[in-house]
Amino acid sequence: MRFALILSLVIAAVAIVFTLQNTASTEVNVGPYTITASLAVVLIVTLSAGVLVGLLASVPARFRAGQRAKKAERELASLRSSLQAPATPAQPTAPKVVPADPTAMPPAADAATDASETQRLAEEVAQRTQQATGKQA
């Protein structure tokens, strides 16, 4: 944004210097009319018309961007309000099914055994992945 502003100012300064150096009288034909004016005036009017056309061409895009911003703000407000709303009570969970034969249940493992088993499985997966991809560490 800052670069575009600086570039626009430089172009405007060059255009102004150019028009001030070209003050000769010239004729411009616009349809059935012939206008006699200074070349500087013709160039300034032409530059201004170009800027106006550029601004008018950007109006639809600016309008759509504004509409998207308003929609995003509404969605954000909706999400914020839903986060601040009190949580609904949790649904009761279904009871666990317990087999009739208690010997059919696997023995309970403690946390250390679970962690070591998880580590062993992670190492095995890493090793198989290396073998599958052909990379040896």
Strand-helix topology:
Layout: H1 2-21, E1 25-30, E2 33-38, H2 39-84, H3 111-133
Antiparallel strand pairs: 1-2
Helix pairs in contact: 1-2
Describe the main β-sheet briefly.
Answer: 2 strands, antiparallel
Beta-strand residue percentage? 5-15%
Radius of gyration: 38 Å
Order of helices and strands: HEEHH
- The average pLDDT is 80
User: How far apart are the termini?
Assistant: 49 Å
Shape type: elongated
Label the structural class: mainly alpha
Give the fraction of residues assigned to helices.
Answer: 55-70%
What's the arrangement of strands in the largest beta sheet? 1-2
Secondary structure tally, helices: 3
Please count the beta strands (DSSP E, at least 2 residues each): 2
Uncertain stretches of 5 or more adjacent residues: none
Overview of this structure, please?
- Helices cover 65% and strands 9% of the residues.
- The protein is mainly α and 137 residues long.
- A hairpin with a 2-residue loop joins strand 1 (25-30) and strand 2.
- The model has no long low-confidence stretch (mean pLDDT 80).
- The radius of gyration is 38 Å and the shape is elongated.
- A two-stranded antiparallel sheet has the order 1-2.
- Helix 1 (2-21) packs antiparallel against helix 2.
In short:
The protein has 137 residues and is mostly helical.
